[in-house]
Amino acid sequence: MQNEFPPNTYIDISEHLEAKLNAMAIYRSQGGNFAQARSLQAMRALVKFRGATVNVCATEAFYLIPEIK
């Protein structure tokens, strides 16, 4: 099974990155050491990598599915 996530929408969280990481630090049982996906270091690396793809410091990436009504 291939784990593929092709984001097409990015939200700049540069101004909120430290608050996000501080909030996540409260849930220590969900984190772990680097390179576990939910470690604070891995989360920081991912949002910075995604940010670099769209020329900002840090972003959350989403896959937006169009809705037809």
How does this model look, in words?
A two-stranded antiparallel sheet has the order 1-2. It starts with 8 loop residues before the first strand and ends in a 7-residue tail after the last strand. The protein is built from 2 helices and 2 strands, in the order βααβ. Helix content is 33%, strand content 12%. It is α+β, with helices and mostly antiparallel strands. It is globular and about 40 Å long. The chain has one domain.
Concise synopsis of the structure shown:
This protein has helices at 17-25, 40-53; strands at 9-12, 59-62. With 69 residues, it is an alpha+beta fold. The chain has one domain (9-62).
Features of the shown structure:
69 residues; alpha+beta; two-stranded antiparallel ribbon; 2 helices; 2 strands; 12% strand; globular
Percent of residues in helical segments?
A: 25-40%
Classify the secondary structure makeup into a structural class: alpha+beta
Biggest sheet, open or closed, and with what strands and sense?
Answer: 2 strands, antiparallel
Number of strands: 2
